[in-house]
Amino acid sequence: MNILLIYPEFVDTFWGFKHALKFIGKDATFPPLGLLTVASMLPDDWNVRLCDMNVERLRKRDLAWADYAFISAMTVQKKSSKRVLQRCLKEEVKTVAGGPLFTIEPQSFPEVDHFVLNEAEVTLPDFIRDVRNGNPRREYTSTDFPDMTQTPIPRWDLLNLKEYASMCIQYSRGCPFNCDFCNVTSLFGQKQRYKSSSQITSELQSLVDAGWKKDVFFVDDNFIGNKGRLKRELLPDLIEWHTNHPTTNFNTEASMNIADDPELMDMLVRSGFNKVFIGIETPDEESLTACSKIQNTKRDLIEDVKKIQRAGLQVQGGFIVGFDSDTESIFQRQIDFIQKSGIVTAMVGLLQAPFGTRLYDRMQEEGRIIGDTTGDNVDGSMNIVPIMNAQKLKNGYHEILNKIYSPRPYYQRVKTFLREYDPASFKAKLSRQDIWAFVKSLFRLGIIGKERFQYWKLLVWTAVHRKRSLPDAVTLAIYGFHFRKVCIQNIKH
Ligand code: B12
Ligand code: SF4
Description:
The chain is α/β, with parallel strands linked by helices.
């Protein structure tokens, strides 16, 4: 049996980092971890190939080779998934679809031959059995959340590692919180499940064996969902692992209560973590309560961010405008918050109600759903009728993006961040890739870029005041170039 795993193309988005990847000569930020994991669950006598369309073209001869095309996607890949499915139909290749997009809205894909939904650990074995017996069903689903100790090591051998900026690894699934706009709890549950510490160190070792020595993203929904377990089990092993592999740094996603635990932050930094994404959403208490983001209420959020930065972790933040209780003052409050906190990578989106969330159900009851989400948080689209006048909301939203990503405020924010941040993982020895990115930035940002004055000012300031952060300053200058392209130039007005 020949299986072609296909990962459809992403549009040009905030997290795609397409315009920053050019500086390091890479095609994609992350590999498709879901498909690589599924590949490890397929029978040994099945032949498997991967086509990640973010790094290569899907060729006719690949489709001709395949008995089944296995497609994985999230909502933001909906249009490209549709195109892939059309090609498979044309080439008469049977399709098997799984992953978040298809699990949430299978009804949107009548052209799919087989749905293997939810987590493959529970649904794939039945599909494989039925294929072997020659009678696979159209749909396989489950309400069970599998034990992750059974999840195999992803098949890194299917990748050309050189095409990617970072690798991914997953320790847990699920999140103890339940924010009403988020798909995580409906997909993966509120009770977290974990791999064992030895599974994680074996996975990391398998990456090293495959030739990977650079950054690794822990793609957990909330890495610190169970702090006690993390401190007791995984982090002591990761600290030891990082001592032996100092070139690998980690980043992850966590909730704001990370700031309450200096011991945890210290252990994370000693394990090699240097960045953490946190859904901050809004400085407005009423909106936080209304969307059930209770973990962010009754706190000094700016001070929390600073505590995390001082501990040695760069904070990346998600922000939302368009909550029911937002008034026109929210735009300036968000700008002030982002600037003061020194969150350089600030993803600001208009509130969207993804299918399958509590927010979607509420909006539908209130008759306020006006379409599907695009899955891209920063394209300025909305699928709900907001309480605030829609045009005012869009104007205010664009104002935020303009204010936080224009060169002057952006570079100011980088400085605000670097003042607090003390990098534990100082790169004494830069890689050839780092040097090349720096040289390219000198030309693209320092000579022909609109931001050239700000760029040089930042480099000089960092060289004088924060020498150890020079690599971070250059990286953030490059990120800024990408964010400006995506958030200001590409946006539909
Ligand atoms: C890593 C990640 C990303 C990476 C993607 C990297 C990449 N190349 O894939 C980045 C950072 C780019 C990203 C971005 C976004 N993401 Co994201 N992301 C994740 C995250 C945290 C982990 C995904 C992962 O690798 N999981 C590990 C693998 C092993 O799990 P998996 O992919 O689900 O695969 C399992 C099953 O689904 C199934 N399966 C998967 N595919 C297939 C295929 C077949 C054929 C079969 C049989 C089975 C199968 O089997 C696997 C094993 O059980 C998930 C949350 C999560 N827990 O999954 C969110 C998640 C996928 N992201 C989500 C969202 C909303 C986004 C953003 C819109 C966020 C934002 N606010 O901007 C953006 C959109 C894209 C963009 N703007 O660029 C949503 C998707 C919801 C949806 N309906 O699509 C999720 C579920 C989180 C959430 N909040 O609900 N994301
Ligand atoms: S804390 Fe994050 S992952 Fe958890 S429910 Fe809220 S938005 Fe989703």
